[in-house]
Design a protein that fits this description.
By secondary structure, the protein is an alpha+beta fold. The chain contains 9 helices and 9 strands. The protein has a 4-stranded antiparallel sheet. The protein is globular and about 60 Å long. Bound molecules: zinc ion.
């Protein structure tokens, strides 16, 4: 699906993503949106999918006792049901194109598990001769400290074809396919190349995050991270994304992101 972004107030105008940055384009949309009460009032919002956009990082920690209530298993690994369904569909699509063997390595991790994973990384780094403080700093570039990991949401998936989680995954058939197609199924490569200054995590081609459609497509088309997307929503509260069949109205209500799909 190709998403084309229009100004709400002037639906004839298409703002090419190459000519305008995401921020500029959306600012124009925002100006038009707020004055269009007719449309705003005509939209009946669907149930919120806002929890799919939950931003978790070192500035936005989850409480130690946070645990999603719809965990299910896939390939023996726990994750949230909507992510499991989307992942299953994605695997089928991959296999229909002749790409086999993608496995879940890790998905939901509770706070205590994440603390153990982080401590392991710190210990391994200390074994290379670093002091604890330095080792903690280095470890946190590739493993989030407890509470800062979106694995605790049950919406983050580490995937692999050989059991290893390394940068080499990006060059495999599966890695390339996911980078180009996972957004169709509601996933993003959460820590993309060249965005470590924003995410504060190294490029991880194996770490997918379920955010749902259309968000995954918006992030993919615009080359932005979840941090940048949430930041944008916080500043502008509403925008519209068109595709062939109709449009999505995305609106922020407090911390809640609501999406309404409208058919043409
Ligand atoms: Zn991960």
């Amino acid at each position: 699906m190709v998403l084309i972004i229009f100004s709400l107030g002037a639906p004839g105008a298409v703002f090419a993503e190459t000519a305008h940055g995401f921020e500029d384009t959306c600012r124009l949309r925002h100006k038009a949106s707020v004055s269009d009460e007719g449309l705003e009032n005509s939209v009946r919002f669907a149930a919120s999918d806002s929890d799919f956009l939950h931003l978790v990082n070192r500035e936005n920690l989850l409480p130690a006792d946070y645990r999603p209530d719809d965990l299910v298993r896939f390939q023996g690994i726990e994750l949230r049901e909507p992510a499991r369904d989307a992942f299953g569909e994605m695997l089928e699509a991959m296999e229909s194109e002749g790409i086999y063997g993608l496995r879940l390595q890790s998905a939901y991790r509770c706070f205590t598990h994440q603390r153990a994973v982080f401590e392991d990384k710190v210990r391994l780094t200390m074994a290379k001769g670093h002091g604890r403080e330095e080792a903690t700093q280095i470890a946190s570039q590739s493993v989030q400290p407890p509470g800062a990991s979106e694995h605790q949401l049950g919406l983050a998936l580490d995937v692999s074809i050989n059991g290893q989680l390394t940068g080499a995954f990006a060059h495999t058939e599966a890695g390339k396919w996911l980078a180009e197609n996972c957004h169709y199924f509601g996933f993003i490569v959460r820590y993309p190349q060249g965005k470590s200054d924003v995410t504060r995590i190294i490029y991880e081609p194996w770490h997918l995050r379920f955010v749902g459609v259309p968000h995954a497509q918006i992030l993919y088309e615009n080359g932005i991270t979840l941090e940048e997307y949430r930041g944008f929503l916080a500043r502008h509260y509403m925008y519209v994304v068109w595709d062939r069949d109709g449009y999505f109205l995305v609106q922020l209500w407090g911390d809640d992101v609501r999406v309404e799909k409208k058919q043409n």
